[in-house]
Amino acid sequence: MMKKKILKLLDRSLDAPLGPRDRERLDRALAAWPELERTRENLLALRRDLAGARTASFRPEFAERTLARARSEGLFGAGAEPGFLPVVAGLARRAALAGLILVVAVASYVLISGELIPRDAVYYVSNLSLDRILELPLF
After folding, report:
1. How far apart are CA 79 and CA 4, in angstroms?
2. 129 Cβ partners below 8 Å, 6+ apart?
3. Global pTM?
4. Which of 70, 82, 126, 130 pairs as cysteine with 76 (C-beta 3.0–4.6 A)?
């Protein structure tokens, strides 16, 4: 219970300055628990990494550019204002179609080649008794 409260205090300290009493409590806990100090350092490193990893594709006005692209590709009517899900579904339609074509191609190859279950594996298992199969190591 006490550790949970200290973790919440640590979390709060990363977002805003603490009062003197809470700061003293957190400092005592950090001094007493080396693992808490490691957790704090890991959280700070993670925040630095996330802050430095801004992607260029999310420049200002990302939402407006996305909606303009959806309009230009005719994903919704000219007068209609789209919701989030129809826009995402429309933009992902091409990727979904390409994935479906790939799945059909792989399934067709497997069925045509006749190597869905190799013959050697079928014959090997068929010669074993149930007890022997259960004794086979899995890993």
Report:
1. 52
2. none
3. 0.37
4. 82
